[in-house]
Amino acid sequence: MIPSDWALRMHLAVVCLLLPTAMAADVDAEVARGSVFDDRNGNGMRDPSERGLSGVRVSNQREVTVTDRDGRWELPADTNTTFFVIKPRGWMPPLNHHQLPRFFYVHKPDGSPRHLKFPGVDPTGPLPASIDFPLRRQSEPKTFKAVFMGDTQPRDIREVNYFRDSVIPELIGTDAAFGVTLGDVVFDDLGVFEPHNATVALIGVPWWNVIGNHDHNYDVPNDREANETFTRFYGPNYYSFDHGPVHFIALDDVEWGGAKPAGTGSYTAGLDARQLEFVKNDLALVPDDQLVVLMMHIPLTDVGNRGELYRLIEKRRYALSISGHTHWHEHRFITREDGWMGKEPHHHIVTVTACGSWWTGAPNAAGIPHATMRDGAPNGYAIVTFDGRRASLTFKAAGMPASKQMNVILPSPLTASTTSTNWVYVNVFDGSERSTVEYRIDGHGSWNRLEKVKEHDPSYVARKAAEELQPPTIPPYRKMGNPILSPHLWKARLPALAAGEHRIEVRTRDHQRRVYREENPFTVAP
After folding, report:
1. CA atoms within 13 A of residue 24's CA, in its CB half-sphere
2. From CA 377, how far away is CA 463, in angstroms rounded?
3. Contact residues for 193 (Cβ-Cβ < 8 A; gap 6+)
C-alpha cells in the first residue's frame, strides 16, 4: 500500500486536476472505472482475497487520478482512450512473453481503421464494468541501473539478426533493472516489431519503449491515429512510471502531418496539447525533490514547442532528459539562450544508437556492418546508474570492452621531420563541453591539453573514403552516411619526436569527474 500521508496529499491534488476537465466534458461522456490491486498469486485477475492498492496514480493520457482506499479509480473516456497505471515504486505490472510491461488497457470500441497497412488494435467493444490493473511487489533500491538505446531500427529480419548478434549477447544477464528503446524501434516496416521484441526479450529484463518517427502508421490522416500499431504492441504512446526514487516520463514528440494528398506526408517535432496537459497533471503529483527523467525520440532542443515543456520542469532542481534520433551521441546543456529559465542549465543527452548509422558500412568477419555513427563513435548503448537524485551515464560500445571510451587518431605515416606539423585527434565517445582531454608522450613530461573542436572525425572520413574506392560487394550492405561535425572531438599539435617507437597516453575527465585513459604505441620513421 502507498503511504497514507502521501496518498492523502495526492487525493487532494487530484481534485484540482479533474475538476476543469469534468466541468468542460460532455454530459454524455463515458466514465471508465476500475481498480489497482495486489496480484499476490500472479494470475492477472483480482481474486476475492486480493486487496486494492490506495494512492496509486492512473491516467487516460490527459487526466491523472489516484486510487481510493479500496484501490478504485474512475476517469473520463472517449472512443480512442488508452488507460494506464503509473507504476509506483516497489511494484511492477505483469510482463508478456516478450518482457513488455502490460500496464495499460486500450479502449477502441470499433478498433483501429481497417485500411491500415500494418494492423492496429482489434475492436474492444464497450467499456468493461471494471478495468483492473494488477501489480506485484518487487525490490527497488535507491541505487539501480537501466539500459538506454537510441534507434535499434532494423528494417528487416536480416537487421534484427545484426542486432541480435552484435548487441544482445553482452546484455544477457545484465544487472540493470530494466531497459528502454528511445524510439525508432524499427524502420518503417512495423511487421518487424514482433521478431524484434522476441530478440530484445532475450536480455531478460523488463523493456519499455518510446515511439519514434519510423514507428508510425504513415497511412492515417492525423497524428492521433499514427500510433495504432505501436499501441497494439507497447500500449500508450506517452506514459510515466516510477522505479526506485526516480520518476520516468516517456513522451511522443513526433507529430505526424497526415498522409497525402490531404496531409503533409511528413512529421515535425512537437508535443500536442493533450500530452502537455498529461505531463502537467502527472508532475503535479510528483514531489519537487524527486528526480524526473524525460524520455523522448527527437532531441528536446529540436522540439518546436519545447518552451511549454520547459515551463513545466524548469523549477525542478532534479530533472534530466534523454533522446535518440540523430545517430550520434551528445551531451547538451540547455541554457537561457534556448529559452530555458531554470536556475541551472538543463542536461539533455542525445544517446548512442544501437544501429549506429542505420546498420551501414562494410561487414566484419561475422557479416555484420561496422555501423559506426556519423560522429565517429561506435554503435552501442548507454548504461545509466541512478543513485537517489543523481544519474551517471556510461557509454558502451557494442562488441568492445567497457574500458573503450575513446579513439586516439594519429596520422600515418609519421616521420621525424614532420611530427611537429601533424595533429593528434581524440574522439571521446561520451565527452562534452565540460570534459577535459590531455595527452603526453612516452610516459614522462607534463600533460598537454587538447582543444575541443567541431570537425569531422578523421578516422570516419578515411573509412568512408576507402569504402568509396572499394565498396562492399556483397549485398545488401549499404554505404556509410556523410560525417557530421563531431560534438566530442579534441585535437592538439604533436611535438617534435625522434625516429623510433613511442607511446601516447591520453586521459579525459568528464563532467562527473570520472577519468578514462587510453595508451597507444606508434612509430616515427626516420
Report:
1. 6
2. 13
3. 185, 186, 229, 233
For residues 225 and 359, state if they share a domain.
yes
Quote the CA–CA distance of 486 and 362 in Å, as a whole number.
21
Q: How far is CA 16 from CA 19, 23, 205, 344, in A?
A: 5, 11, 37, 30
Q: Angle, to 10 degrees, between the axis of helix 273-283 and the axis of helix 306-313?
A: 10
Each residue of 275-313: pLDDT tens digit?
999 999 999 999 999 999 999 999 999 999 999 999 999
Q: Are residues 209 and 275 in the same domain?
A: yes
111 with 162, same domain: the answer is: no
Over residues 438-487, the pLDDT tens digits come to 999 999 889 999 999 999 999 999 999 999 888 777 767 899 999 999 99
- 278 with 243, same domain: the answer is yes
Domain that holds residue 212: 144-400
152 shares a domain with 127? no
393 and 416 housed in the same domain: no
What is each CA distance from 425 to 246, 514, 515, in whole angstroms?
38, 20, 18
Render pLDDT for 329-355 as a digit per residue (tens, 0 to 9).
999 999 999 999 999 999 999 999 999
Q: Which three cell numbers stand for residue 221?
A: 490522416
- Residue listed under C-alpha cell 528494417: 155
Greatest Cα pair distance, the chain, in angstroms, is 89
How does DSSP assign 321-390, residue by residue?
EEE-SSSS-EEEEE-GGGT--SSSPEEEEEPPBTTTTTT-S-B-TTS-B----TTSPPPEEEEEEEETTE
The pTM of the full predicted model, rounded to 2 decimals, is: 0.94
Judge if 374 and 245 occupy the same domain: yes
**Residue where a domain terminates, one of 353, 372, 400:** 400
* CA 17 to centroid of chain Cα atoms: 28
Q: How many domains does the chain have?
A: 3
**pLDDT for residue 2:** 52
Task: Write the CATH number for 368.
Answer: 3.60.21.10
- Would you tell me how many other CB atoms lie within 10 Å of the CB of residue 240? 26
DSSP letters of 136-165? EE----SEEEEEEEB----SSHHHHHHHHH
pLDDT tens track for 189-239: 999 999 999 999 999 999 999 999 999 999 999 999 999 999 999 999 999
Q: Which three cell numbers stand for residue 217?
A: 502508421
Q: Do 46 and 103 belong to one domain?
A: yes
CB 274 within 8 A of CB 244: no
